[in-house]
Amino acid sequence: MSSATLLDREVAALGGATMGTRWHVRLAVRRGRDLHGLHAGIQGVLDDVVAQMSQWEAGSAISRYNGAARGTRHRLPAGFAHVMSVALEVAQASGGAFDPTLGPLVALWGFGASRGPLRVPSDAEREATAQRIGWSRLVWDANSAELLQPGGLALDLSAIAKGYGVDAVAAYLQHAGVDAALVEVGGELFGYGDKPDAQPWRVLVESAPEEDAASALPPRVVALRGRAIATSGDRWHHFDAGDERYSHTFDPRLRRPVPRAPAAVSVVAADATHADAWATAMTVLGPEEGLALAERLHLAVRFLSRDGTGLRERLSPAFEALLEATP
Questions:
Q1: pLDDT by residue (tens digit) across 113-150?
Q2: How much is the pTM?
Q3: 248 with 256: CB under 8 angstroms?
Q4: C-alpha angle with apex 68: 92 to 96, nearest 5 degrees?
Q5: What angle do CA 253, 255, 259 make, to 5 degrees?
Q6: 3-state secondary structure 255-283
Q7: 256 CB-contact burial (10 Å; exposed 0-12 / middle 13-18 / buried 19+)
Q8: For residue 190, which of 312, 272, 288 has the smallest C-alpha distance?
Q9: Rounded distance, CA 45 to CA 24, Å?
């Protein structure tokens, strides 16, 4: 792109509400361009994600599937179908650390769309609910985009849908002729193209703000040029009972919230759908198991854990290779 073209561009900012959170987009556009159509288009894209995958909407595609009769088959709309394929891919690769069928278990503890009192359920309640979960129960035909309802199964895509929303907005903007943008939905980000100063979009990796003041860890900056970053951790939603903190991230293998969840887990990937899902899977796996898997699969992962005296940072080789020096 010529210097004259770069000088004719500026960075504009748009924002709105979706999925119980906020969305923000910074985009490089021609100076003076009317952005009303782009704003409406972005909101429309995200509204479509909600209509497909929000459990808070009684008429959404996911709510219809969750309430369907045993043995029925459901043809999923394109976005939902893509998310289902990625969810099952990550479930398989993570050994079940990511599981899109945790809806009944999440509700049992008081989290999610069926929000009730946050509580620790009995062993009997957990055992009964466990009969209704398990990603291996899903019968998915990717060719026909049909998903079988085996009976009593309730999908929960809250750990991947925001990431997909980011990707869907980025695809819309590129189709609309926006050649550089940074898209964020609820903390998940994707950046592509260069800003008018010919620099990529650079972001500060999320951390644990309430503990950062006492930490000697350096700030971490990643350039998002055709990359996404997603962060999961226990500071977003949790409750305390007795001497234990219960995170909103569930370990499907233990059928309970992740014990001693990392303060923050960030994953950089080629798209936000995968980054979002893997951030959850890595939170479940923890630093030891997670970093071993990340190295085998060449995943870029950063763990921030509490070690009793403060925060401890551990990086996969792929994540370390992406870091940029900070002043």
A1: 666 677 888 888 888 888 889 999 999 999 999 999 99
A2: 0.92
A3: no
A4: 15
A5: 85
A6: CEECCCCCCEEEEEECCHHHHHHHHHHHH
A7: middle
A8: 272
A9: 13
Give the H or E element holding residue 301: strand 300-306
d(CA 322, CA 327): 16
Strands 146-148 and 139-141: antiparallel
Q: For residues 327 and 324, give the distance between their C-alpha atoms in angstroms, rounded to a whole number.
A: 10
| Two tokens, residue 30 | 């021609």
Q: CA 230, 18, 97: angle at the middle one, nearest 5?
A: 35
User: How far are the Cα atoms of 72, 79, 139, 156, 288 from residue 132, in angstroms, in the given order?
Assistant: 16, 25, 14, 13, 29
Residue-wise pLDDT tens digits, 224-237: 999 999 998 765 55
| Rounded mean pLDDT, 39-63 | 97
The two structure tokens encoding residue 287: 């630093």
Query: Pseudo-torsion of CA 310, 316, 320, 321, nearest 10°?
Result: 180
138 near 101, Cβ under 8 Å?
yes
Please identify which residue in the block is written with the tokens 């970093």.
291
Secondary structure (3-state) at 295 = helix
Q: Are 181 and 170 in contact (CB under 8 A)?
A: yes
CA distance 326 to 309: 25
**Token pair in block for residue 95:** 């050994």
